[in-house]
TrEMBL record:
This is SRPBCC family protein. InterPro entries: Polyketide_cyclase/dehydratase, START-like_dom_sf. Residues 172-183 have a biased composition (Low complexity). It comes from the Bacteria. Residues 159-227 are annotated as: Disordered. The lineage of its organism: Bacteria, Bacillati, Actinomycetota, Actinomycetes, Kitasatosporales. It holds the Pfam family Polyketide_cyc2.
Length: 227
């Protein structure tokens, strides 16, 4: 089950960013997993086109926790190799007067599609940082980047930063670029990384691993020679 997450800092209040993400019709403006979308009767049901599909599929908003979390689940799509169910999750928290957004995608595969999960994961790792860049540009209206900004973005992506700070948070690695403030982000561009940043708040919590029961001991007997 491929699961990819990236994080982007946006110099806007959490409430405004959440209101934009909670409206599924806005996904087509920046997310590569949604080619076109329209409402389907209620605020939680939509009809959308997944890349490579001609027919519309159903998209349902299954998580709505303002202004912290919102999630959408797509309809199960059939292929000759199996099925795929895409899920789009977003988590938000305040950071230095702005917002830190987690953009996540999960693909539930079945059948022979399970053999292609490395290819699916590789595609999302390639596209999701570009989607985070597009989300930043759509919300802030920043379409032109100052000269030399791309080098700055490459350096920032190599380091964690932008998460909630705490007195018990670990120190940053020596030589790593320091996290930028919301004012600096508005000038230099988005802070995109694959880490949420330092702090006590973890956007995702994994369930503790369950202990496995020991395998029963087996006894093997050598064949008794006859004659």
């Amino acid at each position: 089950m491929p699961q990819v997450r990236v994080y982007v800092s946006i110099p806007m209040p959490v409430e405004e960013v959440f209101a934009f993400l909670a409206d599924g019709c806005n996904l087509a403006a920046w997310h590569s997993g949604v080619m076109a979308i329209r409402p389907d009767g209620t605020d939680e049901e939509y009809r959308y086109r997944f890349p490579g599909r001609r027919r519309e599929c159903r998209l349902t908003r299954t998580v709505y926790e303002p202004p912290v979390r919102v999630g959408f689940v797509g309809q199960r799509m059939w292929t000759p190799l199996g099925t795929q169910v895409p899920r789009f999750d977003f988590r938000l928290w305040s950071w230095e007067g702005g917002s830190r957004v987690e953009v996540g995608v999960t693909s539930c595969l079945s059948g022979a599609m399970l053999l292609l999960w490395p290819v699916v994961a590789c595609g999302w790792r390639r596209d999701l940082p570009v989607d985070a860049q597009a989300l930043y540009e759509v919300l802030t209206g920043a379409t032109e980047r100052p000269e030399g900004e791309m080098e700055e973005m490459v350096a920032v992506r190599e380091a964690a930063g932008g998460g909630p700070t705490d007195s018990t948070a670990p120190d940053a690695a020596v030589g790593a670029p320091a996290p930028r403030t919301a004012a600096e982000v508005g000038v230099l561009g988005p802070d995109i990384s694959t880490e949420p940043g330092f702090g006590s708040v973890e956007p995702y919590r994994r369930a503790p691993a369950r202990p496995r029961a020991p395998w029963p001991a087996r006894r093997f007997r050598l064949p008794v020679p006859r004659g």
